[in-house]
Amino acid sequence: AQSVAQPEDQVNVAEGNPLTVKCTYSVSGNPYLFWYVQYPNRGLQFLLKYITGDNLVKGSYGFEAEFNKSQTSFHLKKPSALVSDSALYFCAVRVHTGGFKTIFGAGTRLFVKA
Amino acid sequence: DTEVTQTPKHLVMGMTNKKSLKCEQHMGHRAMYWYKQKAKKPPELMFVYSYEKLSINESVPSRFSPECPNSSLLNLHLHALQPEDSALYLCASSQVDMGLVSDEQFFGPGTRLTVL
How many CB pairs under 8 A join A and B? Predict the structure, then answer.
């Protein structure tokens, strides 16, 4: 079965410190991996994606993610967290099963303290 | 225009009512999606339309009826809903590259539905 796991319900980090939000995946074939962010009472916003190429992917708002095939991971990172980064983060994998379908992880809530 | 719009923002309905949710995008995307999201949970896929044809129905109850009248519009018709159907309903769209599934989705802000 194809799936995405986010092992942490919540991540707490101080403003200015680096942050990491973890994601592991299980898919057959090549993974198409995404990170989305959701602010309260809003829809999801795309941050970045890995399709092929460099393992380090840079995205919006200073976020980046590292694809690690041997560990089947796609962790989201940022060198210096901002209070405004506090939100709900979803890792996702896109699969093709008769149509285009996205499987989301359970989500990780990021709290950045001033 | 890189926006997906959804109306209404909020909807309260009784279990015998009929209502519709509307979604619109003008990015030329040919795939459109309906998701249901409960609080603090990931979005759950309900329907996928590709080139205005229903391509995925995730075994959604028939009280939810999707419609894609043209490439820019997606509706979700609601009838005889249950209180447990209360949730945030999200619409999304994406490019379609035949044979590829690499494109990100653009999400609307959602409709907050409450069923009494």
Answer: 66
